[in-house]
Amino acid sequence: MDTLVKKARDFAEKAHADQKYGMCPYLRHLEDVAAIAAQHGPEAMAISFLHDVLEDVKGCSLEQLEEQFGHKIAKCVAICTDELGETRMERKQRTNLKMAAVSGEWEVALVVKAADRLANVRESARSALLDPGNKHLPRYRTEHPEFRKAAHRPGLCDAIWEELDRLLA
Q: How many domains does the chain have?
């Protein structure tokens, strides 16, 4: 495993130690996202492991990430982090506006955001088989057009988008 990826994985494992993703340790979700993003290189994998720390871990700061992982990784994690808002809709609208403005070297954050969404959609699809009342998959379907409009860049991670489009059709 690449040194940067291992460092990010270890950091995230410790930061999310007490958290769960469904019934599993939170690290499982992060590993799923990193596996999807892996073909985009070690930077994408490192960001994948860190993508939820600013949003979900008390006491974790952008400054701490920058000190540990450098400016680019920290900024990409910040791009992946949902904006604040009173409702999910408000948070997603603000986050989509932020992602729509991303270009150049920062687009690796959009790869991770798409990989995160795909990991969530895959898990929601599995859960829907066991619990037909599960509301996650319909919510992702509703959000998909605006999410895609904000985060999709032709040629960036087309395989991820193709699977998302298929699962959310």
A: 1
